[in-house]
Here is the input.
Amino acid sequence: MSNPIFCCGAECGQTYGYGAATTGHWTGQTGADLSISTATVRSGSRSFRFNAEAGLGTDIQKAHAASSILVGRFAIRFASFPAVLLEVINVDTINATIQFNPSGSTLEALFDGATTQVGPVLSLNTWYVVDLRISGTTATKTLDWAVNSVAQTQATNPVGSTSYVGTFYMGAWAAATITTDVF
Here is the structure.
């Protein structure tokens, strides 16, 4: 069994600027402090807000001890859709990604260099809860995911050896003008 990893959501209201050392909290990665929204929330009283154009930061990270399995949940809501492919989450070392594809307004799951699994079509101003389980315990890495409790097609990467799950990144990696609220 993997060691549990605590990762704080936005509810505590504590965020740290680029380069800060933290335990359990999120750290900004683009030189800008993170923004916490109290106006647009899914539940509770806060959400992260990413908006590069407004200087609110574009992504956050949570580094953790090496583990071969990562299980998580996040919710995402787009106030406007980006015009370019947008990584919503990325887990380094194992190179697992959930991204937004503007060509069909869909979420997709993939590993670098492997088959992309297309998920549901999204609507603006609607919260979507994404559950995921990423495993590097065998040579075939897997990303199991569900959107609003509906299982999606598993993404796999048969290339490589057993690998640990690295730093978990969440946010908006694109030069597009977007506002993304994530809780």
Q: What stands out?
A: Residues 1-6 have pLDDT under 50 and may be disordered. DSSP finds no helices and 15 strands in the chain. The first strand starts at residue 27 and ends at 28.
